Amino acid sequence: MLKFEELKNFLDEKADQYNIPGFIDDDPIQIPHRFSLKQDIEIAGFLAATISWGNRKSIIKSAEKMLEFMGNSPYDFVLNHSVRDLEGIRDKSVHRTFNGEDFSYFISQFKRIYTGNESLESLFKLGEKETNFLYAIERFRDNFLEPEKHRSHKHVSSPGKNSSAKRIMMFLRWMVRKDKRGVDFGIWENTDQKYLSIPLDVHTGNISRKLGLISRTQNDWKTVEELDTAIRQFDENDPAKYDFALFGLGVTKELL
Question: What pLDDT is recorded for position 89?
Fold first, then answer.
């Protein structure tokens, strides 16, 4: 077990190693990196993050399929699509259990949201005294998902139901983190990155346990908060940078 300073130095080194432009090439974050318009980045990023489970090459291929459906202009398509356009999407396969019906539902919700909001950032605004995105994500879900139950609701995780919300946390890291490395976008100017959490999945969870950062065995929201407590001691202003370290260590199996 490494001492505090040793562990901090190790994780800083690994975050520095993986937080480089070359990371983009093999990661779903390459999908929003194909755009420069803020709303294009948000829509492409949210869709890519939503289907981010399984093989990364497969995720990227499926996300590219969605971009093609939208004519590689996500924001324009969201605002100006026709009923017939959505009908042509519903019977398409997209990515595993995220199908054409889910895709068309998301497009409809995006149109409704962007009709009244310049950016998705306004839907993730943190409240006073909130120190993570638990309640912000729940408020986003209430806004994005219509009250009537729909199969697509399962694709927007709920930390209120103890989900780690890994894919939403990854999307938030992309939008919020600000550095000069060129990987994360940092386009949400009014959201402080110090409140970000690590996107917790099998890889980051296993590595965090191996390093003694967490003790819980489940990869759920309670564990996200346990990891918050540990990781924010290393850098209280930019804790999510350690996602690069934990994910990189998990993918390369360096510690196995």
Answer: 87
